[in-house]
# Entry
Amino acid sequence: MRGQATKGMAVLNDRIEAKWIDAFETTFRACGVTETQTAIILSETQSRDLNVHLSELALGRIGASFFHLKVPTPRNTSPAIIRSSGATLALNGQEKAVAALSGVDFVADLTLEGLMHAPQTGAILKGGARILNISNEHPDMLERAMPDEDLKARTLAAARLCRKSSEMTVTSDAGTDLRVNMAGNNTVGVWGWTDKPGTLAHWPGGIVVSFPAAGSVNGRLVFQPGDMNLTFKKYFDSEVIFTLENDYVTSIEGKGTDARLMRNYLDAFGDREAFATSHVGWGLHRGARYEALTMYDKRDSNATELRAVAGNFLYSTGANEFAGRFTEGHFDLPMMGCTITVDDTCVVENGVLTS
Ligand SMILES: [Fe+2]
# Structure
């Protein structure tokens, strides 16, 4: 017995590989980064050093003018453990850093939670920067989940469909039956890069997410073993039933560990908004692997790939700024085996993309 060495399944070394510099370079070039542009690598003290380093080498190869901006990982002031919020707190009180970020062409965002929903993101984008959030994954995962033009086209089409729609319904053989009034929704399609000034993307991508207006989500979600809780980074192993009334989860039923964990976690925030709907949508990345969570240590994965698995229904609780709700709690809960219909278009049938 060799003690600690046999623990876990750490099969990946945290070292630079040429193929990962290639992957970062390809993605940065897709974002329109050239040798005439300026860039900042934004990180915090708890960021994954390997990805910070790969970003530096990729920008160096491109010949862009860049520098590092590293801020301290902030104190956790929430009563709960914050994971997967998509809203880094690392720029709070860092006006000088925000000013610098607003002044460059490109920001490689390596904060732990990401700039997706951070309060400072609007100001940074206003300056014309493109922000690429690099999800806190081991680069082995990033390398496999590269985006391509086909994914971009399908993601854009899905986003267009959702934006002009009036209703989304989601059903499953297990008993899921959800109705979302899509009037006034705010939809984002993310395919994994952005070359448009003043916009943000994250890598991996391949999802369409709609933030419904207030009071739009009603029905029942029946989670089955094999569905995913990406805040906990685990597959469900027991059934959990959510009842949703006017956006809010009003009951969480289930006898297993999953229901208990979810009730406990949401209660910990002491905040009713933690129980509200954040976004609804689906995964479009045919290269994203459903079983990926079984292949990585938790520390090697932020599970963004699982959000993009083709044909999942991605339901999330937490903040929805478009419905005037703010909270630090956030569950991303991709469900398999659902049928999703947007107005008259069936986009996912029994967990499979229809186009
Ligand atoms: Fe989310």
Summary: The longest strand covers residues 325-335. The domain at 3-142 is CATH 3.40.50 (Rossmann fold). The chain has a mean pLDDT of 95.
